[in-house]
Design goal:
By secondary structure, the chain is an alpha/beta fold. The protein contains 17 helices and 21 strands. It has helices spanning 11-23, 85-93, 105-113, 122-138, 191-203, 234-243, 300-308, 315-338, 347-357, 361-371, 381-385, 396-415, 421-435, 446-465, 470-481, 533-542, 602-626; strands at 2-7, 32-38, 144-150, 153-158, 163-167, 172-175, 177-180, 206-208, 226-230, 250-253, 259-262, 269-274, 485-490, 493-497, 500-504, 512-514, 516-519, 545-549, 554-560, 567-569, 575-581.
């Protein structure tokens, strides 16, 4: 008997188990016991657990979610296809998946009404992931025992035969191979967060630090009170939902198609601001009408040219200019090939123009103005990233109205069928994200690895391609009309003055004073100071956080170093042979957990590669046992 212990039981962990079992053959004579350890049920784990508000949703459509490999997957292991979330729901509806567990009337009603373009609740995603887990276990080949051990891993000790995994309740599990698949975790407070917590305690203020929204305690935010909310991404949207609709308010559709919010009276008054001063761009609901998206600038040949040069590859200097030009190509390819009546020349001619201007922004603007009459059809990378530009605002009312106009325009551009250039842009950004995986980690400059890729690029990607469903922004506008939400502007900073939180923007006249502050974003990755004891131990005892340095930059990534196959790199720089890690806390390229169907997803490629290495380690252990 060989023992594999997986620390964690969320989507990544179960997808890894599926990839391992897909490799198992009848020739595997040594029995395998596979144990997943997690305080939350397998499949969903903590983030996607069933026990959370039914108002919280995925920011992906049901047709865009899968946990299965398919014919597009470029992997070494066997392809075992399965239903996407919408296909699963359709099959459950007709009784083709009798082992699905939908025992909640609200979940059943949601499943019955689900469409491909619906944004499912996290609770329904939990049911899909639970089924995936149980199906994976049910089809495990002979000689394999798969089980879930409810509990929290505290540490992992080396033993004479391998490892011993220690749980908080005193249970000890033997392991020949250990895989850490912990997903997203919190961290100990640092810097400004620690200072704000201390100030809140001194002045009896309410401060909610960065956290996963489903875990944040919002009860201290009292009805009618002013609350400063920093951050306008997905965590912020979730917090707004819980503090409005979640407190008894309701939305009504008006005869003219507009949306109105009817307050319950239990809502606080929310002042939202961020670096950009606007929410993340909404998810795109249009479909392509023109030529297929294709990489024209950030091509394999262009990446090969970068890698052929001596020295490090720098994201800002070498790669971002290629991405920016690729986005321009993606937008205008769709405009010119899908809507020739809205332009004054052909796509073939404009392709020549794009090659000629070659990243000259001012020249491109002049050429576009001559052949694209409608300003809404024009595209500018800087305006996409910072829609408020360098604008200044006299007062809170002025900036509030400006942000309202931006949200309305963004909703139109991202959801109207005739604005399918937004879909082309989304697919182009996604293609660029996947293309960066072709650049080996060790070739990036130190600053690129520590700042530009995990922060600058990841934030831009999330802002453009991973924003909230369109209806959430429509609701945000209705809340603004109802006076429940106010937009505070860009570059928002907060200080404590005269016993209160005071928020201000250098580009907006006036200040906002409040007794409550919510920092609505996820905690920064820092494995060595994680709130998960097993991850802290991994980063400080068995492994090490990645530190990078070169002539111009040095710093820590806050992530556990692993090799290309997911082996944890020990503190002496040598990879462990039987200790692996997979997920956002590692030095591997961040790829998410579940993914879009038929996209040759990076997450499935990574998971399959780690599964191959884990299977080899288990085989070596089994061979020793047979001697």
């Amino acid at each position: 008997m060989t023992d594999l212990v997986v620390v964690g039981a969320g989507p990544r962990a179960v997808m890894l188990v599926e990839r391992l079992l897909a490799r198992r053959t009848p020739a595997s004579v040594t029995p395998l016991r596979l144990t997943l350890v997690d305080p939350y049920p397998p499949g969903a784990g903590r983030i996607w657990r069933r026990e959370q508000s039914s108002l919280l949703k995925l920011n992906s459509m049901a047709r865009d979610v899968t946990v299965f490999t398919d014919e597009t997957s470029t992997i070494a292991g066997p392809v075992r296809s399965g239903p996407s979330l919408i296909e699963w729901a359709e099959r459950v509806r007709v009784g083709a998946i009798p082992d699905a567990r939908i025992d909640d009337p609200d979940l059943d009603a949601e499943l019955r009404a689900l469409r491909g373009d619906s944004f499912p609740t996290r609770r329904l995603q939990s049911a899909y992931l639970d089924w995936f887990w149980r199906r994976t276990v049910a089809i495990a080949p002979p000689g394999v025992e798969v089980r879930w051990q409810e509990g929290t891993v505290q540490w992992v000790d080396e033993s004479l035969d391998g490892y011993e995994v220690a749980l908080a309740d005193g249970i000890r599990l033997p392991a020949d191979v250990v895989v850490y698949a912990l997903g997203h975790n919190g961290r100990d407070p640092e810097g400004e967060t620690r200072e704000l917590l201390a100030a809140a305690a001194r002045h009896d203020l309410v401060y909610i630090p960065p956290a996963f929204t489903a875990d944040a305690d919002l009860r201290g935010l009292t009805p009618g009170a002013d609350v400063i909310v920093r951050g306008m991404g997905l965590a912020s949207v979730d917090a707004v939902v819980l503090l409005t609709h979640g407190r008894g308010g309701r939305f009504e559709r008006l005869p003219d198609g507009g949306l109105r919010y009817v307050p319950s009276g239990d809502e606080p008054r929310l002042h939202l601001g961020s670096r950009r001063g606007v929410p993340y761009r909404s998810k795109v609901s249009s479909v392509l009408r023109g030529a297929p998206v294709a990489r024209e600038v950030l091509t394999p040949a262009a990446i090969a040219d970068l890698l052929a040069r001596p020295g490090a590859v720098d994201f800002v200097d070498d790669v971002w200019p290629l991405i920016a030009r690729e986005l321009v190509w993606g937008h205008y390819r769709e405009l010119f090939t899908a809507f020739p009546e809205r332009v004054r020349t052909s796509w073939d001619d404009f392709r020549s123009t794009l090659r000629a201007v070659d990243g000259d922004t001012e020249a491109l603007r002049r050429e576009v103005a001559a052949v694209v009459p409608d300003p809404l059809d024009r595209f500018d990378v800087a305006s996409l990233d910072l829609p408020l530009g360098a604008e200044t605002f006299a007062d809170a009312t002025t900036v509030h109205e400006r942000v309202r106009r931006h949200i309305g325009e963004d909703l139109h551009l991202r959801t109207a069928p005739e604005r399918s250039t937004a879909q082309a842009l989304f697919l182009t950004v996604l293609g660029s994200f996947l293309a960066l995986a072709d650049i080996p980690t060790e070739r990036w400059s130190a600053r690129s690895r520590a700042v530009d890729l995990p922060v600058t690029w990841h934030t831009f990607f999330s802002y453009v391609a991973s924003g909230p469903p369109g209806h959430r922004l429509e609701e945000l506008l209705a809340l603004a009309d109802a006076g429940v939400v106010r937009f505070a502007g860009p570059e928002l900073s907060v200080r404590v003055e005269a016993g209160r939180f005071v928020a201000s923007s250098p580009r907006v006249g006036g200040e906002i004073a409040a007794d409550a502050l919510v920092d609505a974003w996820l905690p920064r990755t820092a494995a060595a100071s994680s709130d998960n004891p097993a991850l802290r131990e991994l980063a400080t005892r068995h492994g090490r956080e990645v530190s990078v340095s070169d002539a111009t930059f040095s710093g820590s990534l806050g992530r556990v170093e692993v090799d290309a196959d997911g082996r944890v790199v020990a503190r002496d720089g040598v990879p462990h042979s039987r200790l692996f890690a997979l997920g956002p806390f590692t030095s591997s390229t961040e790829a998410g957990a579940f993914t879009r169907p038929k996209s040759d997803s990076l997450s499935l490629r990574q998971t399959d590669r780690v599964a191959e290495a884990v299977a080899a380690a288990l085989a070596q252990t089994a061979a020793r046992l047979r001697l």
